[in-house]
User: Fold this.
Amino acid sequence: MGAAFVDNAHPVTPPLLITIDGPAGAGKTTVSRLLAEKLEYRYLDTGALYRSVAYSILITGIDYEDAEALTAHLKEFDLTARTEKDGFRLLWKDRDITDQIRTPEISMMASIVSAKPAVRAFLLDMQREMGKDKALVCEGRDMGTVIFPEADIKFFLDADPHVRAGRRYKEMPPKTGVTLEDISRDMLQRDQNDSRRALSPLKPADDAIRIDCTHIDPQAVVRQMLGCIVIMLKARNQMADG
Ligand code: DC
Assistant:
């Protein structure tokens, strides 16, 4: 069955798997949520999964440089990811940790431990399982390259590093003592960690559509994405019709 169109902005289609990759602060979370909402799809924030692993490592104090200790920790690591009306919730040992994983310390630890093969292997199945029924918008660093190379449409979202740091700064709760300079420095460090690591580095998939959102707001980015989805579906239909 081919895709049908209600109007240009709301494609009605067999469920799609949509990936959004990009560096920290590019606006992936806001855009992914908005897009998922528009399409009535589920939304998967894979950065939050890496953050949860980082949080558990910090709390338990295990030595993440010790591959055996890390593997044993992950074997017992009991994480549940839930998509709810107000967003994406994460439970570790039945405790909701969603709001505790957004600190600068966890951001940096997530970037460090995400380079570990055991961590990436542990989260791989969980992510693929969540994508198997499609109707999903997922965001991260390697969604289009490694986790879902067969995704229906892939986006790579980027923005000027100063703008990205400024956005992250505005999201910080008041009175943390964290400065814009701190955020800027940590973000550049994470960009380097994430794009230079050997395993699943941050990079656009060859077939990803790149969107620079330095000067455009999330709503405009989502409009562009919906436009791309419509074009992709039309091309797919034309090919199916011969
Ligand atoms: O998207 P985020 O800032 O919440 O991600 C936190 C860290 O997790 C990021 O610095 C690198 C890692 N990460 C990853 O390696 N692969 C993903 N698909 C998502 C995040």
Q: What stands out?
A: The mean pLDDT is 91. DSSP finds nine helices and ten strands in the chain. The first helix runs from residue 28 to 39. The chain has one domain: 5-231.
